[in-house]
Specification:
This protein is mainly α. 60% of the residues lie in helices and 5% in strands.
Amino acid sequence: MGLSEALGQRDTEALLPVTQAMELRKRNYYVERPLLNQEQLEELGCLTSATETHQWRTWFQCSYTRARALLLQHLPVLAWLPRYPVRDWLLGDLLAGLSVAIMQLPQGLAYALLAGLPPVFGLYSSFYPVFIYFLFGTSRHISVGTFAVMSVMVGSVTESLAPDEDFLQAENATVDEEARDAARVQLTATLSVLVGLFQVGLGLVHFGFVVTYLSEPLVRGYTTAASIQVFVSQLKYVFGLQLSSRSGPLSLIYTVLEVCWKLPQSVVGTVVTALVAGVVLVLVKLLNDKLQRHLPLPLPGELLTLIGATGISYGVGLKHRFGVDVVGNIPAGLVPPVAPSPQLFASLVGYAFTIAVVGFAIAISLGKIFALRHGYRVDSNQELVALGLSNLVGGFFRCFPVSCSMSRSLVQESTGGNTQVAGAVSSLFILIIIVKLGELFQDLPKAVLAAVIIVNLKGMLKQFTDICSLWKANRVDLLIWLVTFVATILLNLDLGLAVAVVFSLLLVVFRTQLPRYSVLGQVPDTDIYRDVAEYSEAREVPGVKIFRSSATMYFANAELYSDALKQRCGVDVDHLISRKKKLVKKQEQKLKRLKKLQKQAGASKDTSVSIEVNSSTRDMESNNMEDSKAEGEGSAMSCRDGGAHACPERKATDLPAQVSTGNELEDMAASGQEGAKAPDVTTLKALGLPQPHFHSLVLDLGALSFVDTVCLKSLKNIFRDFREIEVEVYMAACHTPVVAQLEAGHFFDASITKQHLFASVHDAVLFALQHPRSSPASPVLMTKL
C-alpha cells in the first residue's frame, strides 16, 4: 500500500464514527500467538541473564582518556569556556552580570543583617562563592550568592549559639557588639566549612538523589514558612526595637508577641524610613513590570534606593537627630583566610547537614528549571560538589553558607545571560565595591535594608496561592504543604524540615499500604481487563476471579493485600478452611476409635463383626447428620451397598452390647476411614461444605516493582489457602526483574512452578478456562488475541 493510500485510509478513519473506526482498525489488527506461560515466554524470547558488571573496577583504571574525562567532569569550565562564542554571548553576559551585581550589592548587605552578621560579610559571601561556582558549576543561569532562606537559617544558628545575652557588659548592661560579631563570624565561617564538607562529600559519592526526598510541595511550603520567619526577623529593624534573642520551638510566636508588646517603644524615624524605602521599592518594581518590554535593563530600584537613603542619612544626620540605626563601619579590602574552629563542629553538625540539604534543594530545583527551558543538562552530583566547594572555600574567607537566589537568577536569564560568565562579572563588580566603595555605605540605615528584604519576599509570599491550586489538583500534596508550613512556623527551620521530610515519607508508605484493590473483568471482544467497578461493560469471566493491586506488595502491605483478596473474592476463605479442618479432624478421631474397636472385636471370642467401609459421596454426607439418624441407618446402608462381603444377619438373641458395638463400628466406617478406597474424603463436596463459585484465581502482578521475603511468604500462603478450598492460583504480567527475585527467593518449587506464571492476564484466563481442574503442565493451545 502506497503512502497516498495510507494517508487516505487514515483520513477516512478520522471521519468515521468511533465505533466504525474501531471496526476498521480491528480488521487490520490481527495477532495469532500461542498461549504463553513464563517458561515458554523465556524460551520464545531467548531470555539471557544480564552480564554482571563491576563498576568499581573502572575506578582504578588509569589512562589519558579517563583522566581527561574526570578533569572535564569535575571542572566543567574547561569544557565550555574554550568553545565560548564571544560574539554571540559576551555582550549578553556582561549586561546580565552588571544587572545581577546591582541587585547583589543591596541584597548582600541586607541578608548579612538577616544572618545576624555585620553587612560587609554579605559582600564577602557575594564574591568568593560566586567565583568558585563559575569554575565548577554546570548550570548556566542560576545566580549563586546570598539568599533569604539560607540567611534566616544561619541567623537562627547565630542567635541560638551566640545570643546577645552572652555578651552583656557588666558595667551598663549593654551588648558588646564587637565581641558578639566576632564570635558570630567565627561561628558562621565554621558552619560554612561544615556545610561545604557535607555537600562535597555527598556529591563525590553520587548522593545527589537525596534531594528527591524533598518534593515540590514540601520545598514550596518550607520556603513560604521561611519567608514568614524572614519577615518577623526584620520587624525589629523596621520599628527600631531591641528584642531578646530566641531560637527553638515556638520562637517565632514569642518574637511576634514581644514585638506587639514593645510597639509603643518604636522609633518613629526608623518606621518612617522603612515605610518610605518600601514604597519606593514597590513603585520601582511595578514600573519595571509595566515597562518591561520597553526597557533594555530593569531599573535598579534597590541600588538607587540604597544610594538615595545613604545620601539622605549622611546629609540629614538620621542617626544623631532621629535615632535611626545605621550600618556603621565597613572595612575596605579583603580579609585574609582563617581556619575554622574544630571545637564548634560538634554543636554545628546538625545545623550544617540541614542547611546543606536545603541549599542544594533550592539550587538544583532552579537549575533544572532553567536547563529544561534552554535545552541543556544539569549534573546533580556535580552541582552538589560545586555548591559545596563554594561554601567550603567561602568559609575560610569568613563567608556564611549560600545558595542561589530566585530573583537574581530570573534577572540573569531575562537580561541576556547565557553562561556563568555573567556570575564572574557580577563577582568582579562586588570585588570593586569591597576594595574601594564599601565604606561609602556606612551611613546606610538598617531600616532600608529591612525594607529591601521584605519587598523581595513578594515571590515567596505569593506561594500562599498554592493552597487553592493544590486543593483542586491534589489534596495529599496540599496536606504535605500545610504540615511543612505549620511545622516550620512552630518548630523553627531545622526541626520543621525534619518533621516535613518524615511526614512526607510516612505519607508515601501510608499510601502504598492503602492502594486500590480491584476485581477485573474482560472488556467485551478484547483481551483487555479492567476494574468491574469502574467499567460498566467489563464482565467477570465465569469461574475465574482476577485480582489486582495498584501498588507493589511488600512487608508494609502484604497482610492487607491478602485480606483484601479474600474479601473481594466473596468467599470467607479462613472460615471455610477452619470448618474443613474441623471435619477432617473429626473423621480422623472416629477412624482411630474405629481401629480400636476393630481390635477389641477381633479379640472377642463370642462375637464376630463384619465391617465394610463405603467411600461414596452419600455415605460421606451422611456423616454430617445427627448421630441418632446415623445409628439408625448405618446397618441398612452397609447391607445395601455391600460389595464382596455379605452383611451379617442380626438376630434378636444377640447380646445388646454386641449390637451396639456393631452399629458403632459401621457408623465409624461410613464416616471417616481413609485409604485406597476413599481418595476424596477431604473434598468440600464430600464434607458437605459450600464450594467457591470460581475454580481459578488470577493475580495480576504487573504493579510489582520488587519483592521481599514477606511478599514471598504471602504469595505462598495465598497459593496454599486457595488450594485448600479447591481453587487453583495463577500469576500474570510479572516483570523480568521481579521474576528473577522470585527465583532468587526460592519461590518456585514442586508445587509452584513457572507454569503458574503467565505472560499476560489474558493468557492466564484462557488457560484457567481450558484447564479448570488440570495441572499447569497440560498442553498449550493456540489462541487468537
